[in-house]
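As a representative case, we now present a protein record of this kind.
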Amino acid sequence: MSEDLSEHRKEIDRIDDEILRLLNIRSQSVIEIGKLKKQQDAGANLHTPAREAAIFDRLIAKNPGPFPTDAIRPVYREIMSASLSLEGPQKVAYLGPRATFTHMACMQKFGSSAQYVPVNSIRDVFSEVERGRANFGVVPIENTTEGVVNHTLDMFIDSNLLIYGEVLQEVSHHLLSSSGVAEAVKKICSHPHAIAQCRNWLEANMPLVPVSEVASTARAAEMCLDDPSIAAIASELAAQLYGLKILKSRIEDNLNNMTRFLVLSQKPPQRTGKDKTSLMLSIKDKVGALYDLLRPFASHGLSMTKIESRPSRRKAWEYIFFVDVEGHIEEERVKKAVEEITGRCLFMKVLGSYPAHT
């Protein structure tokens, strides 16, 4: 048996050596592609979602097994992340600090080889990308439990940034501490949204322990390092980065707790064939105005996946609507619907056409 095991391990080592050799050959091609991209457009985004999606789709379709199909995407995300770093630095601004769910969404989108820049507010994320200090920004837009993030919507009113992509991140909350002893916990800290998403569990399991709101789940994790009597509601990544123990896993009340994040850029992505378009518009104040707004989407066979309203902040009782529809602005049906709607609006702004999350 030991001889058989040894032979199999030697074979795995041989294959790993070959994989490493091929990765380096692949990297040489990536470097050449990066040079060609810069010659064509020095300011172009090196990250190309259309090409990324094509690679994923092709490999998933060709996979004969037994390697799990679900593992192809995360494995190749890291390969492509490392490859992009060879073409040039990919700076991504996000609502920090480290180990927040926004940080996790960044890593899901861009892999571990990107350069992540934590900032203090959603406004700062927009600013970093607008000023060219970051290639991309990642901001939360809505949560299945807590609803829309209004501050992100409001930022689009005055910003010229485009939506470059979206990320759906599962939000699993864990109770963490430095001691790992539940009986030692005298206070629980976390972000208000995380506390709200775990309210039922807290009331049922730790009703006598006071709960305090702090700026972020990561900040709560940091506080645990200085005080073993504090527990944090935070992510598994926070436990890893701050060296904390998990007292209880998945304490969120809704097991289908998801947050949607938007990727921001100065430039639009290429069309992929599985796209979504986001619009911002203000309608005239008259009877049937909202119906007139929605009708062109239906008449052109477009599925509207989201509509949200916000006060315009310019005139009392005037509202701005944020709308998501399936399809790309270059598609004829989308283009025609937008043209029809534009004539019925006080103003219309296309926030971007970008790959839908898969």
